[in-house]
Write a structure and sequence with these properties.
Blueprint: H1 2-11, H2 13-24, H3 36-49, E1 53-57, E2 64-70, E3 77-83, H4 91-94, E4 104-106, E5 109-111, H5 119-136, E6 142-148, H6 158-164, E7 173-176, E8 188-190, E9 192-193, E10 195-204, E11 210-211, H7 212-215, H8 222-233, H9 254-261, H10 267-274, H11 283-292, E12 295-302, E13 313-314, E14 317-326, H12 332-345, E15 351-359, E16 362-363, H13 371-382, E17 387-389, H14 399-404, E18 409-411, E19 427-429, H15 430-449
Parallel strand pairs: 3-6, 3-7, 7-18, 8-17
Antiparallel strand pairs: 1-2, 2-6, 4-5, 5-19, 9-16, 10-14, 10-15, 11-13, 12-14
């Protein structure tokens, strides 16, 4: 069977890659709505051609494309997930080397927005399903596919969709692809994800901009107020200090601690990707911080004058965007309340803290009986043994599968460590995309045997 899968993927490699290139050409940006209708039509048409029963569900935001395929009374049901929406891209402002909406294949790389996040990942699995059916006829398992269009803006419609369609979504295992692999194309099984709380801090002062000579020292300075608040929230070592949301309040279980101690750290690979050394060099501490601890990030700051020359003004307002990566049982609303209490308790009454988006963390046990099944399929697809990792450092809406549906969920990334998702020059690798197709086909075989 392995030889047949290898041969089929090799023979159809050009066609498989072409499907991804066609998808990247659609600028399906959920933030603006651009290209969403075209992306939905692209997926629905392809999936029906591949034999899926497809429904398109309208939501308060972007549509959800849902498909089912395979034996209705199959003894095993696989639920998988992906998102067709992508992050915005501005070629000139961000410094892209290519047009983000015109994919370029350069050796083993495919450059373009969505190549890694998430079009190359969900299309690898969809193509695996289609190719298996083409080679062997009716699929031996039932497969259910959710493709949403709001992941990059917080997946707000997804929980309601899942709650409303619980019976339709019944399955034995949720397994999907998102996030980056480890350096040097090391495959991994991610047994969870960190959550996220997106925040906006808006500080206000006088009713107008003031002359810093006439009013400096006696007028409120919202820029400095906001800088002080942000600095008080996190220490110089990056640890979040807010009571009720802090770094030290999260419990790391012995099993999780053992798991991160067993993971290698390719420090050179990390440095090559970032261009600077990581702030933590001990492997266990590196992985613990990335997977099992909350992290605070300021993603944007706006205030005052930054043009040529100098303006001596006290700016009347300042705004910062931030995100907190959540872990374990941290509830986004509890963390938001803790941050607001922290600011109020320190007298920052002129700073309004607004929620932009929130997604809880999610975790599946490292001892799940499905780990060997998925691990073997990935090893067969990549020709390399995967690592079993407690959590993705980033966020997916994994909690809707683990918490709302009560399913074990395993994430298998198919994008390279340096995919540059959400950044200019996003990419994936042809080799990893095709390995993902092979792994998906092996996964079907493993589920059928189970």
């Amino acid at each position: 069977m392995a030889a047949a899968i290898d041969s089929a993927v090799r023979d159809r490699a050009g066609e498989l890659v072409a499907t991804l290139l066609d998808s990247i050409r659609i600028p399906s940006v959920s933030l603006t709505g651009e290209g969403i209708g075209e992306a939905v039509e692209f997926l629905a048409t392809r999936m029906r051609r591949w034999g899926f029963e497809v429904q398109v569900f309208p939501t308060a935001s972007q549509p959800i494309v849902y498909g089912e395929i395979g034996l209705r009374d199959a003894p095993f049901t696989w639920l998988t997930y992906g998102h067709y929406d992508v992050y915005p891209a501005d070629a000139k402002a961000e410094g892209w080397n290519t047009d983000p909406w015109q994919p370029v294949v350069d050796g083993d790389r495919i450059w373009g927005r969505g190549a890694g996040d998430n079009k190359g990942q969900h299309l690898a699995l969809l193509n695996a399903i289609a190719l298996h059916r083409e080679l062997h006829g009716e699929l031996p398992i039932r497969i259910k596919v959710i493709l949403e269009g709001d992941e990059e803006t917080g997946s707000r419609p997804l929980p309601e969709f899942v709650e409303t369609h619980r019976d339709m979504l019944r399955a034995d295992l949720c397994c999907y692809s998102d996030g980056p692999m480890f350096p040097n194309d090391q495959p991994v099984l991610l047994m969870g994800v960190r959550g996220i709380l997106g925040l906006e801090f808006a500080a206000t002062g006088a009713k107008r901009n003031l002359h810093s000579g006439n009013f400096g020292g006696v007028a409120p300075n919202p820029t400095l107020d906001l800088i002080h608040l942000l600095a008080e929230m996190v220490d110089r070592d990056g640890r979040l200090l807010v009571p009720g949301a802090g770094y030290a309040e999260v419990t790391v279980t012995p099993g999780e601690a053992a798991a991160v101690r067993s993971l290698p750290l390719d420090r050179e690979g990390v440095m090559a990707s970032m261009g600077v050394p990581p702030t933590v060099s001990d492997p266990a501490a590196f992985h613990e911080r990335l997977m099992l601890r909350p992290a605070f990030n300021v993603s944007g700051f706006s205030s005052g004058y930054t043009g040529p020359g100098h303006k001596t003004i006290i700016f009347k307002e300042a705004i910062a965007k931030a995100d907190i990566r959540l872990v374990g049982g941290q509830d986004p609303q509890d963390v938001l309340a803790a941050v607001r209490r922290f600011a109020a308790g320190r007298g920052y009454t002129n700073i309004e803290i607004r929620e932009l988006k929130s997604t809880p963390a999610s975790r599946t046990s490292l001892d799940s009986p499905y780990v060997p099944l998925v691990k073997k399929a990935v090893a067969d697809g990549f020709g390399r043994e995967p690592l079993v990792v407690p959590s993705l450092g980033g966020t997916t809406p994994d909690y809707v599968f683990t918490r709302l549906l009560g399913l074990p969920s395993i994430v298998v990334p198919l994008a390279p460590y340096d995919e540059n998702n959400h950044a200019p020059n996003e990419s994936t690798k042809v080799s990893l995309y095709l390995a993902g197709v092979r792994a998906g086909m092996h996964l079907i075989e493993g589920m059928a045997r189970r």
